[in-house]
Amino acid sequence: MTAGKKGFEETWLEKGDALYDQYQYEEALEAYRRVRAVDPGYLHAVNRMGTILSLMDRDEEALACFTTVLELGSENPLLADTALNNMAAILRKHGRFDEAFTAYDRALDLEPKNVMALCNKGNLFSDLGRDEEALAMYERALEIEPENAALLVNKAYALTGLNHLEEALGVIDRALELDPGNIVALNNRGNVLSELSRDEEAILMFERALENDPERVASMVNKGISLSKLGRHEEALAAFDRA
User: Fold this and answer.
1) Of 44, 85, 100, 112, which sits with the fewest C-beta atoms within 10 Å of its C-beta?
2) Phi first, then psi: what are they for 214, rounded to 5°?
3) Rounded Cα–Cα distance for residues 106 and 100 (Å)
4) Cα dihedral sign, 115-116-117-123
5) 19-66 tens-digit pLDDT
6) CB 11 within 8 A of CB 51
7) Whole-model pTM?
8) pLDDT of 192-241, one tens digit each?
9) Using one digit for the tens of pLDDT, what is the confidence trace for 143-152?
10) Which CATH number fits the domain 181-243, given the four candidates 2.30.260.10, 1.10.3720.10, 3.30.565.10, 1.25.40.10?
């Protein structure tokens, strides 16, 4: 940061943040550009520009911003970590999986206990059907944050993919102890119960998920499938129609 410019930069950064919170993305970008016009090395502004550009589906421009942060901000591990995770998310979105893995690995080189990078790398493995590797990432993350309900849900999903259904059920139950209203956990518990042919119990899980999110299509469809398996076809059709 250039000496003597701190007040101007922070003023415009705060304006940009306020505009971002109001979803006025173009105006927020202009505020951050004003910061960079005075100090091109003010990388917090560059990183926030990348975030906004990504939200606007201007992904190549976003990647350019995050690349700038990484090139100029290697001495700031927290900023570099954020840029790497954001970059990897964009690359994953566009199916550029090898590049996404490289970004996550760089983030983990900077900080081996980076829970976000471990989780997101696990999610990428899961996207590719590589459930053993996904499970390993989630378990590494859980060693650091053992009471992270979202990580437990992801671990259970990987176990389900590996057909370790009873173990998956136990992991989901732990997630629900920590976060009883976790809709993904409720829905996934229903799916595992259905896989175990325990569809009456599965329906109760889907209904609990729908109590928390009445518009959740996946839970409506899953409830319909379980009802159909039980021969309750009229109720199943009603669930499908609702979806």
Assistant:
1) 112
2) -60, -20
3) 10
4) positive
5) 999 999 999 999 999 998 888 888 889 999 999 999 999 999 999 999
6) no
7) 0.82
8) 999 999 999 999 999 999 999 998 999 999 999 999 999 999 999 999 99
9) 999 999 999 9
10) 1.25.40.10
151, two tokens: 């990580």
What tokens were used for 127?
Answer: 């996207």
Token reading at 97: 């999986």
